[in-house]
Amino acid sequence: MTSKQEQSPAAAAIPSAVRNYIDGEWVAAEGDDVQPVVNPATGETLVDITYSNTETVDETVEKAADAFDDWRATSPVKRVQYLFDLKQELEDRQEDIAQALTREHGKTLAEARGEIRRGIENVEVAAGIPNMLREGSGNVEGIATNMDEHAVRQPLGVFTAITPFNFPAMIPLWFLPYAVATGNSFILKPSEKVPLSSQLIFEAIDAVNFPDGVVNLVNGGADTVNALLEHDDIAGVSFVGSTPVAQYIYETAAKHGKRVQAQGGAKNYAVATDSAELDQAVPNIIGSAYGNAGQRCLANDVLVGVGDVYDDLRAEVLDAIDDLTVGNGLDEETDVGPLITGESADRVLEMIDDAIDEGAELVVDGRDFEHPDYPEGYFLGPTLLEGVTTDMDIAQTEIFGPVMCLAEADDLDEAIEMVNSTEYGNASSLYTERGNEARKYRYEVDAGNIGINVGVCAPLGFFHFGGRKGSFFGDLHAQGEDAVNFYTDKTIEIQRWYS
Length: 499
Ligand code: NAD
Hints:
Elements: H1 3-7, E1 19-22, E2 25-28, E3 34-38, E4 45-50, H2 54-73, H3 76-105, H4 109-126, H5 129-134, E5 139-144, E6 147-155, E7 158-162, H6 172-181, E8 185-189, H7 196-208, E9 215-217, H8 222-230, E10 234-240, H9 243-255, E11 259-263, E12 268-272, H10 278-290, E13 300-306, H11 309-322, H12 342-357, E14 361-364, E15 383-386, E16 403-409, H13 412-419, E17 424-425, E18 427-431, H14 435-444, E19 449-452, E20 468-469, E21 472-473, H15 480-487, E22 488-496
Parallel strand pairs: 7-8, 7-10, 8-9, 10-11, 12-13, 12-18, 13-16, 15-16, 18-19
Antiparallel strand pairs: 1-2, 3-4, 5-6, 6-22, 11-21, 14-15, 17-20
Helix pairs in contact: 2-8, 3-4, 3-7, 4-6, 10-11
The structure holds nicotinamide-adenine-dinucleotide.
Nicotinamide-adenine-dinucleotide binds next to helix 8 and helix 9.
């Protein structure tokens, strides 16, 4: 054990290898590219990951395609029994998953536990698929003489999901339960930076005993993704990640004739008016901007004070930042964990410096933060900039770090114009006690998710989840009824019987 490992509090057991799960078996990944998976709080290497090569992808798709015929013929009522069992297996393992998640990602244990609950929620919602499959299918009897017409939902084959680093346990579960409950087989390609939570989720899947080949895990990087995108037997692709990659996935998958839903990056503003209940709003604003160390697609990293509220808002934000504790997510008192990599921390530092060059004022400076116990960790202290205007790069580019920008607007119209100035449309929040302001905001802000006095407006599993503009490429979003529509197609059956 290295000295760094000794510094990690409550070091729970984590998987000792990153393996693939193909056709019901755990197998070592094959490929030439081997990379370390690093605990961002300590800099320690947790395990190595091998990026799967094209042959492995081909074999996995073949096994998943073989499994499809029988799985499709299994009744939805029986299919969801596996999900009921999976829910229980995940419930039983949630603390182990949370510990692994915190160690590979850096988020706090409380955040990790909350994330797993949101993932399990999707398993629960997808367990209602027999009922959801009925919706949207019409039956018209006697449409002409002796003639009936029905619309019947059918699964499409093998689906894959390619997921990002920031919610390693939850985001795979936005897709996996819906894809398999609707009768498809499925391949997960998790982020190569955080493969450990998926190992534990697939241990739960293995315990549930899905028929071989129905649910598969392939670890890897961009080449692994490309092999999936180009494979003839992949019917559809779900993606979550940064906007340039989302756009690439959308175009490439579509070019290869696949269904595709690609969720991209974000630039989310929060706005507070003079009617906001600041005592309630400010903790919420802080949680949104600095929670998950700002590495959240729903994080509001710009806060606009409208008119007179600005000075009080600024003062309360400063007090709240003062109370934040930065550290290893395994320490229960930590509020803000590290960034995922040293490169991420450098990128955010550069954004702060550029913003200062462009005229923003640094009010809280977290740039030189060093944790005495974790000198190798990729930490940044909470940072606050003010005087930020929409022509600055930092007002238009996703920060994905523990940095918030303060801006001012004379009225709500100006604030909404600022919110809508970015190329993204994932989320936005308004803090107000006035119904007419809330209504105007909901109506005029061009974003897929709007929070009124809610800073992280993540929809529950039975609603769809997705953004607009540069935050989403495709038509049907993740979760809920959109997931059912994405993972099935409707066949029209017209029947005539002569006697
Ligand atoms: P990323 O785009 O770097 O990686 C996401 C996935 O794409 C990974 O599995 C990775 O292996 C793969 N990938 C990366 N580069 C690729 C390439 N050139 N070709 C093919 N595949 C490639 O994203 P990330 O850094 O892991 O995640 C952070 C981003 O995800 C942020 O922009 C965040 O806003 C976004 N995000 C969006 C949502 C949403 O719901 N819209 C949710 C979570 C995260």
